[in-house]
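HUMAN: You are asked to prepare a plain-text protein record giving the amino acid sequence and the backbone structure tokens, both parts labelled.

ASSISTANT:
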Amino acid sequence: MCDHHRTPRLVVTLIITAGLSVVVAMSCSDQRIVEPDCEGCFRFYVDFPNSSTQTVLRDVFFVDSVNGWVVGHDGLILHSADGGATWSTQRQVPGAKFWGVHFLNASTGWIISENGVLTRTSDGGSTWNDRRIGSYALTSVFILDQWRGWTVGADIILRTNNFGTSWQVYDDIDTVLSTLYGVTFPDSSKGWAVGSGDHKILHTDDGGDHWYPQSNPSTQPLLDVAFADASHGWAVGVGATIVHTANGGATWTEQAIGTDRVLHGVDFWDINTGVVVGDLGVVFTTTDAGDTWEQHLTGNNNDLMKVSYIDANSFCACGYNGTLLLITRRWEECCE
């Protein structure tokens, strides 16, 4: 018997139409029941936009509900101007491997590569300018405002206070740093970086002047980090690891998820609504801050590397073999 007064259990159905795979996550209230208090249901629709490539797509970032960028190997930069439905190539640099992308607004963005090059645009990607900032293997980048930004990589944290013209190297490498894969700043003072090595979670409360290890309940390397505000954050990594803090990192706790695969990417829209992606195409979402995670079977088996929310009900993921997934949650009146 279906109880329409409780949160519905999701059942995944794969529908193939006109060559396009659409995954619909349906609840028991999808049954056509004539009932005056029927509240309808949520369905998750998954589309596969054409990336026109088979290369590895490393990172995706949407700065608003319209404009998004994807970067990857072969120096590829893709742009969407319609919320992820279609993508076009803005630039390609053969031999380059772009690992991270972040935009301040629809005009201004940065991309970093594994050979220490910062690529910048101030016109939404119509033109790009390259600047070598060192021989560092860079993995992630974050822009805070018109002056400040950070990038991390193999045993390195770099900071700029003049919008990328010059960079300062954090000088405590021997005692704190390891290979870092993700960096984020919810405000101008507080930031986090995650990675491997002895100190898998690093925190600063002075804008990056000093970084300190935080206690991590997992022994696994962490590959990405996201904070919804200065208190609520999540990091994911090897061994299906998800760790969460609700007090700015004073304590971190592990969260359970129904897989054993590597989780590469995490993003949160607010303190409750989040998504993680990983190997063999796994996609999980939460609406209760990670207390429970719901898996979505997309029909994709390619490893997914990163994910970015577009708006409160849609997000885009990227990965191996040119994979792009556009996933949208829609509320529908399911009953007559």
